[in-house]
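Q: What structure does this chain adopt?
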Amino acid sequence: MTGTTDVPQATGRPGTPQGTDRLLDRHRAVLPDWLALYYDRPLEITHGEGRHVWDADGNRYLDFFGGILTTMTAHALPEVTKAVSEQAGRIIHSSTLYLNRPMVELAERIATLSGIPDARVFFTTSGTEANDTALMLATTYRASNQILAMRNSYHGRSFSTVSITGNRGWSPTSLSPLQTLYVHGGVRDRGPYAHLGDDAFIEACVADLEDLLGHSRAPAALIAEPVQGVGGFTAPPDGLYAAFREVLDRHGILWISDEVQTGWGRTGEHFWGWQAHAASGPPDILTFAKGIGNGMSIGGVVARADIMNCLDANSISTFGGSPVTMAAGLANLSYLLEHDLQGNARRVGGLLIERLRGIGAGVDAVREVRGRGLMIGVELVKPGTDEASPERAAAVLEAARAGGLLIGKGGGHNTSVLRIAPPLSLTVAEAEQGAAILEQALRGI
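A:
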């Protein structure tokens, strides 16, 4: 392995290879079998700084996955760690039953940034919980338990969010509290409309939606990721959801934009993913999580006041809006805006995508390099075919780690897409270094 050993480990400490193996045995003895681990020899990450992390063996890695797009700004960002430490020194927890200044301040900023008029914000602890809350709001507001969702989608691991996930690999049960109908359009380059141009693709997807609504009871909402995350960073042509919105509005159906992975400027071109589909206005409900806490557990929902206030029973959140996580979110959001990390994602991400496309052009197993900003997917297939190759994706994941680079993987029918999503403070030099390691890994297969 090419990592350095900047952090010495004493013999016999938990950070030794033997200690890692023992930790894996303990993990398997007490945690579920279905709790996925990356790598043939799973990795224990002990600390990070900037865009790098270290494992328990002292190896240093360039992090191009950021804890599943969660370490959005940088590891050990001083502004965030200082805010967390100072708030923890005052009070760690109170719950939403009491006034909470950091929660109000972060809610004010997010409401303004959301683009939703007369917005209200409710904080949760995860994206799953945020989407679960959005579904409760939509079904209550519309008095309907029918939901429209996109094929190849992923929205979380709760009972309700699994039931609207259109990706078999992440949907362990067909039992559901909701009736879910799946719509075409989330994947541009596969499926029955892939051969069409962008305008014709949108037209065909809208016609499919219109036809679907003619056969169903009135749905509560359409939930959609502007860029599908777990699905392999796939996206429709810009404007699809604006065209959908015209149809939805005629039927009174709400639009929920799942911004858990696309929010906060990651796509570079926009602060929110929905803004690529803005011709018909903002969504009725927006969900967020992951990057806003830079590793702290924050999720949330933004909705128009009439939707957010439609519940007729008491509700609180014990841990949503925690003073410590809110302090982290405020510090992280301030840093992101003050340092124009959205602009950095656009500039550095654009360079990285073009570099990877150049590499992919010379590797037969690369079907496509896609994405925008610092949200990039590399889809792998069996050379000479259009057949997904999860084996090659797994092999590249291992080879990249051996070269000192951490990436993710995902995809629809098969997990054959490399997912690249570094912290938004990535430098040009780091982007080039990561691309070089990935090139070596790709050519090695």
